[in-house]
Write a structure and sequence with these properties.
With about 140 residues, the chain is mainly α. Helix content is about 80%, strand content about 0%. The longest helix is centred in the first third of the chain and has 37 residues, at about 1-40.
């Protein structure tokens, strides 16, 4: 008996909730119609602006899409011609990444003096006097990305 009372109460609440929701929907719809009728020009301007915004975003995405960059392929022929070893190439890549001699030494598990030796040899092979110049020449030659 208690269960039927509970079910009846739930059903009554749901019916009242549905009626109130429907009434609210009708009132909101009428208010919307009133606003659209009263401010028709503004509503049309907003719709046209939204359409042009969507068109602009779509065109921008279509026209200014960049093709996927091709993966970097190092120029091994230049590397061999200059006599740059694989370890020196590794040091050069870490130089290009902005690593200091100490950071490169830690990363490669060698002493900082070994890194200095590699850097000096790279300067000679690339005919550079500074790190930035060596990195720039290596990029121009296609040795590093």
């Amino acid at each position: 008996m208690a269960m039927t009372r509970y079910a009846a109460m739930v059903r009554t609440i749901l019916v009242y909730g549905a009626v109130l929701a429907a009434g609210t929907f009708v009132l909101e719809w009428l208010q919307f119609r009133f606003l659209v009728q009263r401010h028709a020009v503004e509503a049309y301007v907003v719709l046209v602006a939204a359409a042009f915004l969507g068109l602009g975003v779509w065109l921008g995405a279509r026209l200014f899409r960049r093709p996927a960059a091709a993966p970097f392929v190092p120029n091994t022929r230049v590397q061999e011609t200059l006599g740059i070893s694989d370890r020196e190439l590794e040091v050069l890549g870490l130089l290009a990444a902005g690593g200091s001699n100490k950071e490169i030494a830690r990363r490669l598990e060698v002493s900082p003096n070994t890194v200095k030796t590699h850097v000096t040899k790279l300067f000679a092979k690339l005919e550079a006097s500074r790190r930035t110049e060596a990195i720039q020449k290596a990029r121009e030659l296609g040795i590093i990305p």
